[in-house]
Write a structure and sequence with these properties.
Chain lengths: ~120, ~110
């Protein structure tokens, strides 16, 4: 099973809302990632978790708050977002036993977020 | 900072023609990975190259990693409409992070 699942597929939220994005993998991967992708652009790294601990935060604004409840789950909590935060949010995982980026990354289908 | 430049940005070909996209890094890469993203989809891993001068083939796709491990290419022979999408290279640089190229969007006219 090489599947990474993400929910919801689509999300529309107002600037005062609080919402969460969820990601799950059952491949036993030790590294999990959040990326943000704008239209016609490459994925932009936001956070990396390695062995359930936050290892990289790419200077992401605090209105994005990641959480890794266990080795299979990764959440991204959203609060007080801006319209420019509208994008496709991708979760990915990799084996990550040696280091986070040496192995193949498996991407989930993404959550398409619109902030009104 | 470390960058991976990818060209061309767009390519329109007639079905049956060949297609190539190129990636160049400002510094040596530990490895380079290639992903394909269909319109409305998510990046899907194609291949990883690790060794200097490495060449790998997947059916009509040929991937190369340069001798200096600073450049890479993806060549598709006899394109088909199913090849449509954006192809991204992503290099593992000395920062320990994956650096994505800007992508090449391929359109194939039937």
């Amino acid at each position: 099973d090489t599947e990474v699942t993400q929910t919801p597929k689509h999300l529309v939220m107002g600037m005062t809302n609080k919402k969460s994005l969820k990601c799950e993998q059952h491949m036993g991967h030790r590294a999990m990632y959040w990326y943000k992708q704008k239209a016609k652009k490459p994925p932009e790294l936001m956070f990396v978790y390695s062995y359930e601990k936050l290892s990289i935060n790419e200077s992401v604004p605090s209105r994005f708050s990641p959480e890794c409840p266990n080795s299979s789950l990764l959440n991204l909590h959203l609060h007080a977002l801006q319209p420019e935060d509208s994008a496709l949010y991708l979760c990915a995982s990799s084996q990550g036993e040696v280091s986070e980026f040496t192995d193949t990354q498996y991407f989930g289908p993404g959550t398409r977020l619109t902030v009104l | 900072g470390q960058q991976v430049m990818q060209i061309p940005q767009y390519q329109h070909v007639q079905e049956g023609e060949d297609f190539t996209t190129y990636c160049n890094s400002s510094t040596t890469l530990s490895n380079i990975q290639w992903y394909k993203q269909r319109p409305g989809g998510h990046p899907v891993f194609l291949i990883q190259l690790v060794k200097s001068g490495e060449v790998k083939k997947q059916k009509r796709l040929t991937f190369q990693f340069g001798e200096a491990k600073k450049n890479s290419s993806l060549h598709i022979t006899a394109t088909q409409t199913t090849d449509v999408g954006t192809y991204f290279c992503a290099g593992l640089g000395n920062t320990g992070k994956l650096i994505f190229g800007q992508g090449t969007t391929l359109q194939v006219k039937p």
